[in-house]
Amino acid sequence: MNKTIIAHTPSEMEEIGIELASILTDGMVVSLVGPLGSGKTTLCKGIAKGLLITDVVVSPSYMIARSYQGRMCMHHIDAYRVSTLDELAEVGLDDYLPPESGVSIVEWPDRIDGLIEISTFQVTIELLEDEDRRVNISKQ
Questions:
Q1: What is the CATH number of domain 3-139?
Q2: Are 76 and 109 in contact (CB under 8 A)?
Q3: What local confidence, expressed as pLDDT, does residue 83 receive?
């Protein structure tokens, strides 16, 4: 999947996530790149819906990672406060990159050298006028 979509609302961001979830399989890593407030967590909520996760998905900012179970496990990682892959390893999160089972969704992957390169998909979100978002999904 290589495509660009304009999302006008948060619900459209979730729909993009639901569509992306339909092609995810065990061991995949999805990098979400975009500025603060661009909709990364909203997109992740859509991925969770697409994976039939019924728990409320929240940003894992202070916990660094949260895992949710649906048709497969989704590991939601926020790398904002981490600067190296070694730091992720120190807290045991290197097992999620890539995960043995389930998928890992990583916000702020561009803060850690090498993380985007090991991703299956990179999703880049740009803020446009009128609160629209340009979402570019590329398979690595």
A1: 3.40.50.300
A2: no
A3: 80
- Of the candidates 118, 113, 138, 134, the residue with the CA atom closest to the CA atom of residue 13: 134
Average the pLDDT over 61-88 and give the result: 87
Query: How far apart are alpha carbons 91 and 119 in whole angstroms?
Result: 20
pLDDT in tens, 79-114: 888 888 888 788 778 788 888 899 999 999 998 888
Phi first, then psi, for residue 69 (nearest 5°) are: -110, 130
Burial 129-139 (b: 16+ CB within 10 A, else e): eeeebebebee
pTM for the structure as a whole: 0.93
Burial of 127 (0-12, 13-18, 19+ CB in 10 A): middle
Domains in the chain: boundaries:
3-139
Q: Quick check: helix, strand or coil at residue 112?
A: coil
Contact 103, 17 (CB under 8 A): no
Here the tokens at position 100 are 């043995």
